[in-house]
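Section handout, structural biology tutorial.
Before the tutorial, make sure you can parse a SMILES string by hand: atoms, branches in parentheses, ring closures as digits. In the record below the ligand is nicotinamide-adenine-dinucleotide, and the chain has 459 residues. In the tutorial you will relate the predicted C-alpha cells back to the input. Do not try to memorize them.
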Amino acid sequence: MKITKICCIGAGYVGGPTMAVIAKKNPNIKVTIVDINEERIVAWNDEDLSKLPIYEPGLAEIVAETRGKNLFFSTEIDETIKESEMIFISVNTPTKTYGKGKGMAADLKYVELCARNIAEVSTTDKIVVEKSTLPVRTAQAIKSILHNTGKDVKFEILSNPEFLAEGTAIQDLLNPDRVLIGGESEDAIESLASVYGSWVPQERILRTNVWSSELSKLTANAFLAQRISSINAISELCEHTEANVNEVAKAIGMDSRIGPKFLNASIGFGGSCFQKDILNLVYIARSYNLNAVADYWEQVIILNDHQKRRFSDNLISTLYNTVSGKKIAMLGWAFKKDTNDTRESAAIYVADHLLNEQANIAVYDPKVNNKKVQADLNYLNTRSEEENNDLVKSYSDPYETSKDAHAIAIMTEWDEFKTYDWEKIYNQMKKPAFIFDGRNILDKTEMENIGFEYSSIGK
Ligand SMILES: NC(=O)c1ccc[n+]([C@@H]2O[C@H](COP(=O)([O-])OP(=O)(O)OC[C@H]3O[C@@H](n4cnc5c(N)ncnc54)[C@H](O)[C@@H]3O)[C@@H](O)[C@H]2O)c1
Ligand SMILES: O=c1ccn([C@@H]2O[C@H](COP(=O)(O)OP(=O)(O)O[C@H]3O[C@H](CO)[C@@H](O)[C@H](O)[C@H]3O)[C@@H](O)[C@H]2O)c(=O)[nH]1
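Predicted structure of the complex:
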C-alpha cells in the first residue's frame, strides 16, 4: 500500500518526536498526531516553541521545520483515522493500578480504546501499527477487535516497538541501531519499511514475526535495566571494600563481550519504561507458571528499590541520624538529564523518604517546575497536599536552592551542575556541608579541597 497519510494516536514522548522525524524525512507524507488531551495539542501547536509539551534536544527545530507543512497536531481523532492509510497507536500503557494484575501487568485500556475507535470509524483498509510497548500477544487482541466490525474493511496489524531513549530521542530516531517490524503481511511490512527507508539503511530494518517483535521490546528493556542493577549491586560492595565502581566499570567494560555503555552506577534507574516493562515481563512469565524466570527478572526491580532506599538511608545516617527540620537541597528532579520527564524518577522516592523523616526539601531542576514536583509527590499519597506544599519548595536558581542547606543531594546528571561555583555554594551552606552525589558527576578531591564532606556511589 502506498502511504500518503499517517495518523498517530498519542502525542506523548514517543508519538511527538517519532512522528516529527518521520514527517521531516518524508515530506510527501502528511503526518497528523492526534490526542484526547486538548491541552497537550494546544501546547504542540504553540507559536512559542519553548512551550512544546516535551523537551528534547533538537525537537523544537524539527517541529519548526515541519509543523503546518506536513506535520499536524489535532484533536480531530475520528477524521484523521478515517483519512489515513496507516495508523500508529502510541498511547500510554502504564502499570495497572486496579484489579487483576494490579501493580504488575500493563494496563491496556487505552490501547483497546484506540482499536475500538479505529474499528468504528474506518471505511477504508488500514495498516495499524503498535508503537506502544505491549505485552507479547497483544496484537491478537487488537486483531480480534478490528476483525469483528462487520464492515468490509481490511486491517493489517504490525508491531513496531520504539527504542528511543529520552534526552537523546532525536539522535536515536535519526540514527537508530535498528528498526523492528513484526507482522504477517509482507505488503504491510514493506509499506512501513518504506516509510523508515527514507533515512534508515535497509539492513537496519529488521523484519520478524509479530510475537518476536513484541517480546523483543520487553527483553531489550529488561537487559538494559539489568545492567544498571548489576553495576549498582557492585557499587554497594565497592563501598565496603575500597574498590571504586568507576574503575570496576571501566575494567569490565573494556571486555568487548561486556561493552562500556550503560554501566554508570546511580541512585537507581527511573523513567516510565524500565520498571513498568520488567514488571510486565514478570507478570507474563508468572501467567505461564514460569516462576524461576519471573523471580530472575523481578530481582532487577528489587535491587533498584534497594539502591534508592540506601541512598536516602545513607544521607540520613550521615547527618547524625536525623534530617528533621534540616534543609536538604536536591539538584535535579527529572529521571535523567536533557528531559523534562519525571515519571518514576528516583528523586521522587528519595524525597518521599526524607519527608517521612521531616526534612525540608529545596528542589532545583532546569526543566521541571514546582507544579510537577508537587504533583509527583501528591501522587504517592504519603501525606496531605498541604504538607508536601509546606515541606517542599522549588527554586529557579541553584544558589538560592542550596543557601543555608545542611546537605546537597545530586539526583540528576545535568551537565550544568558540573559548572557551578561550588566554593560559593559551600560558603553559604551550614557546616559541615555535605554533598551526596547520586550520579558521580563531581570531582571528589576538588569538593574535599573546598571543604565539603563528599560522598558518592560505589566509592
Ligand atoms: N517514553 C519513552 O521514552 C518510550 C520509549 C519507547 C516506548 N515507549 C512506549 O510508548 C508508549 C507511549 O509512551 P509515552 O511516553 O509517549 O506516553 P505519554 O503518556 O507521554 O503519551 C501518551 C499519550 O496518549 C494519549 N492518549 C491516551 N489514550 C488515548 C486515546 N484513546 N486517544 C487519543 N489519545 C490518547 C494521552 O493523552 C497521552 O498524551 C508506551 O507504551 C511506552 O511504554 C515509551
Ligand atoms: O548507566 C546508566 C544508564 C542509565 N541509568 C538510568 O536509567 C534510567 C533510564 O535511562 P535511559 O534508558 O537512558 O532512558 P529511557 O528514556 O528510560 O530509555 C529506556 O526506555 C525506553 C522506553 O522503553 C527505551 O525505548 C530505551 O531504549 C531505553 O533505554 C535513567 O534514570 C538513567 O539515569 C543509570 O542509572 N545508569
